[in-house]
Write a structure and sequence with these properties.
mainly alpha; globular
């Protein structure tokens, strides 16, 4: 998708790609009420420790999903629900497969 945006829009496509990535990565932080310093720490962990960041991001998406369900349903919450569904399909399903392989093991006999 990044290449399509860049070839279509040039430098503006690259900026658009980074905006979409930022919104996709940090959407759950906007729905969870927490102090600003905690948000900064979470962003730092997600950015600089990728494996731990993915686990934290997964937990944040689930927490924010239930927080968004408890709030009013408006355009931003619908956008978040779409992002949540995309996130669960792109990361959640492979993560479930990985955990199942760890639990049951792969037989290479």
């Amino acid at each position: 998708m990044k290449e399509k945006l860049v070839t279509t829009f040039g430098a503006a496509g690259m900026v658009l790609w980074y905006i979409i990535s930022f919104v996709f990565c940090f959407a759950p932080i906007f729905y969870i009420r927490m102090p600003f310093i905690v948000r900064i720490i979470i962003v730092g962990v997600v950015m600089f420790i990728p494996f731990v960041g993915e686990i934290i991001r997964c937990l944040l998406y689930i927490w924010a999903f239930f927080s968004a369900l408890g709030g009013t349903i408006d355009g931003l919450s619908i956008l978040f629900f779409v992002l949540f569904a995309l996130y669960m399909f792109t990361l959640g399903i492979p993560m479930i497969g990985f955990v199942l392989r760890l639990i049951f093991g792969s037989k290479s006999e």
